[in-house]
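Entry type: protein chain
Record version: 2
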Amino acid sequence: MLVSITERTREIGTRKALGATNASIQLQFITEAVVICLVGGFIGIVLGIILGSFAVTILGYDANASVQSIVFSVVFSMLIGVTFGYYPANKAAKMNPIEALRYE
């Protein structure tokens, strides 16, 4: 997310110059971080179920994924997105629009 903020410095500067509030910029980047983590979490869950069922058939063990573990995985993924998206979002919101537009 820090790299995304650095790459989009001009966009942030333009949004701030046009009147975007700090809260709206923070919300944009936190939402982006959560969505990225949720997509990754769902891909991980699907791959885990597919590979787990494949391993079960090969090894002959009896195993299945509980709904509780899947819900925990999704919630944990969202928590990671918010946690690691907050600092970059806060940094983006505090940017000076003049410095951001002058960047590069």
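Comment: The radius of gyration is 19 Å.
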